[in-house]
Amino acid sequence: MTPANGLPHDGPLPTTPELASSASDFRSLMAVIDCETEAALAMTRDRHGRTVHAGAAATARVCRDKAAAEAYTTHLAPHAEALLDAARRALDRLPPARHLAGWRAVLDGLAASAAVIRHVLDHPPDPGSPAERAQHASLWPHLTAWADHGSIASDLADQRDGQPHTDPLTGEEQQRWTERAQVAQRGGELDLIESWYAADGQPITLAYLVEDGHSTLVALRGDPGVPGWQVIGHFPHEYAAGKALPAPVPPGVLRPDVSRFNRPPSVPELSHQDLIRDVVEGHTAGDASNALLGAVQRGYTAGPMVRLQELLETSGQFASALQTAQGRQIGARLSALGRQIEFLTREVEEAAEDLGATVAVLPPHRTPVLRARPRPAVDTTPPTPPRASATARHR
Description:
With 395 residues, this protein is an alpha+beta fold. It is 53% helix and 8% strand. Strands 1-2-3-4 form a 4-stranded antiparallel beta sheet. α1 packs across α3 (80-93). The longest helix is centred in the C-terminal third of the chain and has 33 residues, at 325-357. The protein is extended.
C-alpha cells in the first residue's frame, strides 16, 4: 500500500488542484456509500422505522465501514498531509477574520484523524477477520470527519490568493452604480441570484440590475437588506464575475456538532397517512381520538404536528443565523408560526380528548360496500342488456 503520509519522495509533488480534487473525490464516494447504506438499512426496518432485521443491519454497516476505508486509502491517504500543509499556508495568508480560528481548529482535528487513520492502516489484520471489521469500525468516526469537513481544507488550499481584494469599481463610478442599484431595489428591479462570503468575512451578492427592460449583472458588497451596501462591479456574465470577484470561502453550519454521516438513529413515528388510515378504518370515537392524540404526542416518539413545530423552530434558527436583515425577519415569522402550531396542537389535543370522552360508535346503517362483487356461475348465461325503447330519440 502507498504510504499514508504522502507520495514517494522521488515522485512529482501534487499540484493544489490535484490535492483539492482528491478530497472532493473522497467526499463524493462517501456520499455514494452513505446513500447505499441508508437504502440497505431501510430494508431492515418496518414502516415505522423500527429495526426488525438486526443481522442484516449489522452486515450493512460492516460493508459501509470497509468501503469507506478503501475510499480513503485510494483517494486521500497519499495526499492528506500535503493537503493540510497547503491549507495551512493559505490560511496564514488570509486577512484577519473571526472565522480563521475555527478553521484552524478544523485543520488540527483533520490532522489528528489522519494520524489515527494512518497508524491503523499501517497495521492491517487478516483480511475478512473480526479484527479487520473492528478496525474498520474504529476508523469510521475519523473517516466521516474528513467526509464532513475535508471541504474546508480543500477550499482553503484552492484559494486563489490571500491578499486583500481590490473592487473592480472605485470612486465616483462605484457611487454612481450603487445609486442606480438602490433605485432599482426600491422599484423591485434588483434580482438577487447568488451570495457567498469572501475571505475577509464580507458577503458578496450577485444580482441583475433591471433598467428599461435591460438587465446588467452587478456584484454587491454588504447586506442588501440594510443601508450601506455598495456595487463593486458589473459584468457581462457570471463567468466573468467569478474571475474578477473574491473567491467564495466555505459556508458555515447551523450546529457545529452535526454530521451527515453520523446521524442519530431514526425515531419510530407515525405518518399523517397512517393516522388518517386509522381514522378511516376505525369504528369507535376512541379510534379517531387515538389517531388525533398520536398526531400531537410529545417526547421521544413525537407526532407529526409536534415535528412540524420543531421544523419551523429549527428553520427560524437557520434564517436568523444568516445574520442578514431579511433572514432575521423571516426567522421572526417562522418563530411566530411555530407558536401558532403550538397553540393549534393544544387545541387538537383537547378536541381529541373530548372526542374520546363521547364513548360513541358509528351507527350500523353506515354499512360497508364489498370491493369484490359476486360473479355469476361459470355455466350461466350472462343477462341480456335491455333494448332501447321504441320511442327512444335517435341522435
